[in-house]
Design a protein that fits this description.
This protein has about 190 residues and is α+β, with helices and mostly antiparallel strands. It is built from 9 helices and 5 strands, in the order H-E-H-H-E-E-H-H-H-H-E-E-H-H. A hairpin with a 2-residue loop joins strand 2 and strand 3. The protein is elongated, with a radius of gyration of 21 Å.
Length: about 190
């Protein structure tokens, strides 16, 4: 298939799925070379940018997706009255950042970092579609491993986890010292 033939096929697949589709998967289903798919996707993105359309092509890690242009969100909000807007609490944001930077991670590992039970926070993040189950850890009890979703990337405006800001080295040492102090305080309280 040449690029001209690939573009409508990719557009149709992305429209029909309504979700992000991996470039490799698009190459597989169109029986095309990955480079051709990348070129077709790039041309499609340019087509959407240069025309008066309400949709755009967005990249989420190694996947692409059709979505509504952000300037049209107020109109979508009017039609999507049933969709509940979520507000993340400080606890949920803290938990989400731990999952994002440490994934795959178990609830117990999140709790070890936070120092408190994190069941509710993790469960709410799963409800919001920002965190998902990735499988189970090969350890006694086979705890569930959690990681972020494509929705997390879209919500925070990043293309991949590699685009998350790095923690400055001086802050890492501060965090380590605070964690050690908190751990020592907990030990003294239990004694």
């Amino acid at each position: 298939m040449d690029i001209k033939e690939l573009k409508p096929v990719i557009e149709g697949v992305l429209f029909a799925t309504g979700d992000a589709v991996a470039i490799d998967k698009l190459a597989e289903i169109t029986e095309s070379e990955k480079e051709d798919v990348v070129k077709a996707v790039s041309e499609l993105a340019t087509d959407y940018e240069t025309s008066e359309r309400g949709i755009m092509l967005t990249h989420v890690e190694d996947k692409v997706q059709l979505c509504t242009k952000t300037e049209l969100y107020p109109y979508l909000a009017k039609i999507a009255k049933n969709k509940k807007d979520y507000q993340l609490t400080d606890i949920q944001l803290e938990t989400l950042s731990i999952v994002a930077y440490k994934q795959p991670v178990t609830k117990l590992q999140v709790e070890a970092i936070r120092g408190v039970n994190s069941d509710h926070a993790v469960n709410r993040l799963v409800e919001f579609g920002l965190v998902k189950e990735l499988g189970r850890l090969d350890a006694p009890g086979r705890p569930i491993l959690f990681g972020t979703t494509d929705e997390f990337l879209r919500a925070f405006g990043v293309d991949s986890l590699d685009d998350l800001p790095e923690i400055a080295p001086e802050h890492v040492e501060e965090f380590r010292e605070e964690a050690e102090e908190e751990a020592e305080e907990r030990l003294n309280v239990k004694i």
